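TRAF-interacting protein with FHA domain-containing protein A, pasting as requested.
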Amino acid sequence: MTSFEEAETEETATCLHLTFYHPGQEEKMMFRCLNFCKREQVRADDTAKFGRDSSVCRYNLMDTRVSRIQFSLQFYRKLHTSECGFEIKNLSKKTKLTVNQTELGHLNKIDLPWKCIISFGDYRILAEIQEGESMDYFETYLHLADAPIVQERCLPCLPSLQPIPENGISPSLFLPQGKSPTEIDENEL
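Structure tokens follow.
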């Protein structure tokens, strides 16, 4: 057997992609202490804290309007499954934190959706979870947005989504109320 055959099976880690935006990021450089475009491993039992206190926070935001400890992310395994997730907790006494449309006061926490926007003050952070198998650690991958991050429409929240044909004109615009298009085989024409 070769060393390749005897090697441990490679395990992928859950990766939390975080894209940061602030309207004054060019002038104020509040993100200068963050390592962008580089994956960082974080032990599963560590809490990833964000704020301006570098002695406590792993991810520092250089802005006096940011709390000493703004918020934390805790990696966990969901009960009775092998699926992992993140819990976000607002640690700021002065600033509310919003995750998509949910507002969190001091010490409030919720599960982080697989894709969401975290907001506080003028800060917007797009968070996206990429699943992995490792239970020992997770990874963070930070990005800097060039343009403002806007709230995307939540597809499951929209009740009547209909596909739009290639010509871009929805057939529902021309159909009487309550009627839906019927599919016809091209050989039947």
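Note for the archive: DSSP finds two helices and twelve strands in the chain.
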